[in-house]
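Hi everyone, sorry if this is the wrong subforum. Our group has a chain we'd like a structural model of before ordering constructs, and none of us has done structure prediction before. Sequence below.
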Amino acid sequence: MFALIQSYPLLIGILLIALDLLLWHFIPVQRRALRIGLRLVVFLVFTWVLISSGVSPLQPAPWADDLARNLLATVLGIGWWLFAARTMTVVLGVILVSRSSHTGRLLQDVLGAVIFLIAIVAAAAYVLQLPVKGLLATSGVMAIVIGLALQSTLSDVFSGIVLNTTRPYQIGDSISIDGTEGKVIDIDWRATRLLTGNGSLAVIPNSVAAKAKLLNFSQPNDVHGVSISVVVPAKVRPRRVLDALEKTLQGTRTLLSTPAPKVTIKSSNLESVEYEASGFVSAMSQKTEVRNHMFDLAHRHLEAAGVVWNADTQTPQAWSRQRALLEDVRIFRSLTNEEKDSLSQRMTAVEYLADQMILGVGDSSDYVLVIGTGVVSAGIRDGDKQIEAGRMGPGEVLGVEGLLETENSTAEFRTLTSCILYRIDKDDVRNCLEQRGEVKTALIKLQRIRQQTRQSLLEQKPAAIKKGGFLSWLHK
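Answer:
Right subforum, don't worry. Here is the predicted structure as tokens:
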């Protein structure tokens, strides 16, 4: 065995290296421990082959008088250093990946390059007996020249190392870099790649990302900010706008109670004032839906507060609040203007304080109630437990039970804020049902959706509601 090793060390070394490559290629990536273990075993066997044949990677070949044998020993010595560098790089990569997942890849590549550079210098110094000091001096001059030529690229590389070490964002995070928003799909040597909202690819150099203002919307994982801004003429009293936007936040059930939602004045000038209503949701996927819903609620609450957005958009006819509400109630949209005018004149206002019962479970009402201002909570009973099904705002109706069937309320309606509700006698609504089939169809749809949602909540299953949430389908 030893004679064979001494006679054919290069052939055996090549066979061991080929065996290492085959094992590394055919063993599945998922079996990482086996791959690393076999590579270490092959490297140790390769080291044993060299030592058994009288070759040391720390010394030049000892057979100066035998040119062929000396050349074989030199090749094996250089191969040992490269094999050792490769093995060390793989082991280091496993350690980095296990600790920092994908973000350690760039650091692994840089360290791997440094390890191979050290191995090459060591092979030149120990095996080839080259003057390393002169080589390092020459390579230093070349490094300066190359560094000046590749200054921008090197800046991206080292910025990438900093980003992967400090980890302000990771693969899969939704971030904004200097106003460019998108989902991080890759971080490599030179740049960070983002998939933007319109499906395009944004490539941000790492040096720019390291210096830019960065927002990570995915951290922390369970709290994500969502906000809307509205601009109102400066002549409108701020307290009216702030109250309306606070009701908007109260009417958005998806917002977290902690951190608490808030309304602030962002900026103002002689012509207009900008307000911002902000809160937090528990999932990134909710942000778009909640933001759209907040805009819709803000419009309704501001309109209920009498805030005029643009005087040019007013209708020629000065409608009362009751008449304007009927334009937003979907079950009455099929009525003609004359029918709406007549119905609005028979609507009477009733004021409720905060946390006051409007209708309880099993109660019957002689009126259909249209919310004029404020926020109303709708809840259902599950045994002794009260479940909040949703929150309602201006333009939404309650008390419609008994119009199509002789049934009482299956939900409890309670005010969350002070409210003004407008009563419509059910006999007037029944006349509309007889005259307009569209009113009956809309009412059937409304009751069916409410029954389905109630059943879904009782079964502890998410309700199959269209985008827009509970308030949206109540309104429809």
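For your construct planning: Residues 99-103, 461-476 have pLDDT under 50 and may be disordered. The first strand starts at residue 174 and ends at 177.
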